[in-house]
Amino acid sequence: MSDPIGSRRLRKALPAVASIGWALAASSAQAQTAPPFAQLYLDTREAPRQVELDAEIHRAEGLALQAHARPNPTVSVMTENVAGQTPYRGFDRSENTLQLNQAIEIGGKRASRIAAGTAGVAAAQARTREARLAYAYDLAMAYGAAEIADRRIELAEEEVDEASGDMRAVQALVQAGKEARLRALQVETEVNALRSLVDAAKAERVGAYARLAALAGDDAGFTSLAEPLLPRFEARTGYGPIDPLETAPYVAAQAEREAARQRVSAARRQANPDVTVSVGVRRLEIDKANALIAGVSVPLPLFDRNRGNVNAAEADLRAAEARNAGMLLNVKAEIAASLALNEAADARIAAADRTLRTAEEAYRLARIAYEAGKSPLLELLAARHEVGVARGVILDAAAARLESRARLARLEGTTITGEPVQ
């Protein structure tokens, strides 16, 4: 019997379904494959975080440029002896003066200010390089997180396939009357639970790719990677050495200390008074004559000797020196930890590989024994579970090695793929 109401509902729903389809197609068209990591890092020069770092250098350069500026001259016009009592009622006895005043900085004020500006640029450049290395580290971790998310989906789907194979084997024994129906239900329940893990892994993948695109400054987003990053790393016989004095954090701390030292010098010299030289022309109307005038003025430093700014600059210098000393200790500790973590990561990968091979062989034998009726179902399920755990351990070990390599590259002043960071 026909269902006209259902047909009308279907016709009404078709436009909405079509619009959803077009939206999904459009989002798929906009999505793109992330290039290899080295290329992706080069492509992120216009990412918001990178642009912010460039602005920091431009700010320091602007301040350094301003430090070169000399005081502006002032021009004054003055009229005297007018609009008074007789005989100064009109302008016949007026004296009109045009005067140029120029302040002259003495005591090395301008030179110290320029030196402080130059040191500020050097400090900004050092800080920016350190921040770029931090950005390269974060980008590598985001890239690796996206790849790990892909791998987790693959592992989850592989475990579902293996569990489905076990379920078929159990169902065959149930049909043959060699296994209870309860066993088939147990395996089916486990298969459904594993499928839910696949869905959870896919949701995590969406977040990982979204974070990678946001960090790279890409509006379209990524859905895949052009080149895996994890297989690039292999075990090495040794790591280092790394000179702590050449690391970006310590170089930045040194530059900050030098900039603070120059600011102290500039603050001290700022207390020197400026000399103002005045030159002008005066018109004497009563004599119908012009005369030159000249003068020099010097402020008396009785009340303002710039002591507050000097004290503040000296405190900044003490703090910068303390940070520099502390940074050296931190960098040395970070280098030692990074070298040890990389060696441990290689050992962890090797151990995980051996564990996986053992677990896979145990699962193969358990499957044969179960199908032959020589072992219970629980042993088969436990053996397969151990395989899944071993695969997860390998992936976790690969993620740990990725992080340790990224930390080592950051200390060496390169990206995780070896490109130098400026």
Can you walk through the features of this model?
The protein has one domain: Outer membrane efflux proteins (OEP) (Up-down Bundle), CATH 1.20.1600.10. Helix content is 66%, strand content 10%. It is built from 8 helices and 6 strands. The protein has helices at residues 4-30, 37-43, 48-67, 109-175, 181-216, 248-269, 307-371, 377-412; strands spanning 32-34, 74-80, 95-104, 222-225, 275-284, 289-297. Helix 4 (109-175) packs antiparallel against helix 6 and helix 7 (307-371) runs antiparallel to helix 8. The relative contact order is 0.13. Pfam families: OEP (PF02321). GO terms for molecular function: efflux transmembrane transporter activity. Keywords: Coiled coil, Signal. InterPro entries: MdtP/NodT-like (IPR010131), OMP_efflux (IPR003423).
Distance between the termini: 76 Å
Please identify which CATH superfamily we are dealing with: Outer membrane efflux proteins (OEP)
In CATH, the topology is named: Outer membrane efflux proteins (OEP)
The CATH class, by name, is Mainly Alpha
Query: What CATH architecture would you give?
Result: Up-down Bundle
Number of domains: 1
Main sheet attributes: strand count, strand direction, barrel closure: 4 strands, antiparallel
Task: Give average pLDDT, whole number.
Answer: 87
Number of helices: 8
Task: Specify the overall morphology.
Answer: elongated
User: Portion of residues in helices?
Assistant: 55-70%
Number of DSSP strands?
6
- The chain-level structural class is alpha+beta
Please indicate the percent range of residues in DSSP E strands (runs of 2 or more): 5-15%
Assembly state of the chains shown: single chain
What is the rounded Rg?
A: 38 Å
Spatial strand order of the main sheet: 2-3-5-6
InterPro entries: MdtP/NodT-like, OMP_efflux
Keywords: Coiled coil, Signal
Pfam family, one: OEP
Protein name: Metal transporter
